[in-house]
Write a structure and sequence with these properties.
This protein is mainly α and 103 residues long. The chain has a single domain, classed as Non-ribosomal Peptide Synthetase Peptidyl Carrier Protein, Chain A, CATH 1.10.1200. Helix 1 crosses helix 4. The protein is globular, with a radius of gyration of 13 Å.
Length: 103
């Protein structure tokens, strides 16, 4: 049986693939945890980041049956943005899903 972390990795990768279908070859998101999503070194525009976050939220709804908002006040008030890299976002999504599940 898949763990939440494995399910989250899969749904984030699907969101990466969905967003990449809309991007030009030179600006595609990488699937590596060190891929920069936001700030210095990011290869995508802020609007693309928003599309990516929405795609992840939709995948959470489909896979877990949970309605969550990732770009919320909690995320924006964190000292280090959970959207800085793909790895930090996966960690954040894991925490958000666990919290929504009451774990």
């Amino acid at each position: 049986m898949e763990t939440n972390k494995e399910r989250i990795l899969a749904l984030v990768r699907r969101a990466v693939d969905d967003v990449n279908e809309q991007l030009d070859e030179g600006v595609k998101l990488g699937a590596d945890p060190d891929t920069v999503l936001y700030g210095r070194g990011a290869r995508i525009a802020s609007l693309t980041l928003v599309s990516f976050i929405v795609a992840v939220e939709e995948n959470i709804r489909e896979d877990f049956g949970l309605s969550v908002t990732l770009a919320n006040e909690k995320a924006m008030s964190m000292e280090h943005s959970p959207f800085k890299t793909l790895g930090s976002m996966i960690g954040y999504v894991t925490d958000v899903v666990a919290e929504a599940q009451g774990k």
